[in-house]
Amino acid sequence: MNTRSRKIAALVIAAALGWAASFGLDFAVAKNVVADGPGKTAQGDKSQQTGDKSQQTGDWSQWGGSSARNNVPVASNIPTEWEIGDFDYETGEWDDSNAQNIKWVAKLGSQSYGNAVVSDGRIFIGTNNSGGHLKRYPSNVDLGCLLCFDLESGRFLWQHSSEKLPSGRVHDWPLQGICSASYVEGDRLWFVTSRGEVRCVDTAGFYDDENDGPFTDEESIIKEKGQEYNLKEEADIVWVFDMMKELGISQHNMCSCSVTAAGDVLFVNTSNGVDVEHNYIPAPEAPSFFAMDKKTGKVLWTDNSPGLNILHGQWSSPTYAEIDGQAQVIFGGGDGWVYSFDPAGDGEGNAKLLWRFDANPKESKWELMGKGTRNNIIATPVIYDNVVYVAVGQDPEHGEGVGHLWCIDPTKSGDVSPELAYNSDDPDQVIPHKRVQAVVPEEGDFARPNPNSAVIWHYEGHDKDGDGKLGFDETMHRSCGTVAIKDDVLYIADFSGLFHCLNAKTGEFNWNFDMLSAAWGSPLIVDDKVFIGDEDGEIAVFKHSADPTEAMKREDPDDEESELVPYFGQPYMGATVYSTPIVAHGVLYISSQSHLFAIQAEEN
């Protein structure tokens, strides 16, 4: 089957699977189902950052695997080919007779954007309620859901259910579910709900026969419904922090942040944004970023730097590292700036800014519905070898547009942007940042290079044909995704479907590939292979190499002029893949729009 035929088939299957999930057709199947209760696997290791191939990465307990967010686990014998099997669209049942290298499949909802995380024999993932896992919430009830499955079998264990806000789509968009990834440590899990809450839950649920939330009696809630339900299928909630109530935020469309932590401190982006008409900022004084005690939910410090300059929403996730002896928590702002703070704050409940970086050209302009050239930041910053990598982008609903990828030196302080803005009335005085356009030449504004710039390199595309301009396939477009880096080779996908490979140290262009479909997610590098999903449900699999002739192969091996295609091919998942592939304990996990697949090489 050629690429175009596979794409058509994928779209047909995606539509059918989405229809089946929307009606709650049930299946939860594995080739080997275990007894009740979660299976146990070895605790996670620390080999991700060392690159030590002698030790396999175990648990994958947060987005990116660590607070540095570089999706580069260690494993071997990861499959590059698989067949997902067949589905009965009347019953939803999985038929594994034609499946290849599929360990198990678990049903999600009809829309799934968040990434899976793995810890202590369980796998956790956000979705909506179209899967209908709980009897008290049928599939036609719209919820944001965090699902927990047994890692060995894929059996459903429990669900956290977030009812939709009555204010509707301005704050909690229909059918979108939980779009962020969780953070897990020990027997506690923290995540951000779509309705503007940070929640801490017990990873064991009620399987440990204990209620860990003194103020949350799930059993009494269930009894009030007047029916018998299985308490063990419910989440055991430890504490809840309502950001709308406690911080006065007004998230745009939903809250989505994959939190991270350092010690007992949890870091959160609030998603504070514009109003329903996109005309003003309802809560400019409310925090955009904050730190809290992960054990108690107590707020430690807050920061509202983007203020009235928020462009749309703020859905990026924080990154943490200690660099040259200075701990830093780094946030992508809804104003298109990158901010770094001292995780300890100033000791008085406020943030302590280390540096800030405008990731857009000063003359770029924000226009509604993505028509302009100024972008906010949705991607998560990544730290590799003590430098920061981040791309700009917009809500995918705004469509395609020009983007930028930056490599930033995080050891500087203050305003470390590439340029500073001035006005001819006082050409030696830096002017304040302006939301729509930082430098308006018609008003006498101009930009100068910043002597304190932290730019190591900047990538906006590569003129492959040397004609002096960037064509579509030469441009770095808007991106929702993060970079992944190994051996100084960097990969990133943009929303226009181009997959870029660069030198991480210099920004030098190595190669790119047009996936012919939008990419929302980020790459996975493992086992000297690179995986990236797309909106057509395909997973392009390349050899990990800066050389395009090694990373890819000729579509027709006998024709030296034929197109280069991914070396290992493009297996498909049957439905759109918005998420990022992960690996834990030697198993590849990929979530499509409607299902979570555990992919493992079958024994001969």
TrEMBL record:
The keyword Signal applies. Pfam families: PQQ_2. Residues 39-72 are annotated as: Disordered. The keyword Signal applies. Residues 1-20 form the signal peptide. Residues 480-542 form the Pyrrolo-quinoline quinone repeat domain. It comes from Adhaeretor mobilis. InterPro entries: PQQ_b-propeller_rpt (IPR018391), PQQ_rpt_dom (IPR002372), Quinoprotein_ADH-like_sf (IPR011047), WD40/YVTN_repeat-like_dom_sf (IPR015943). It comes from the Bacteria. This is Outer membrane biogenesis protein BamB. Keywords: Signal.
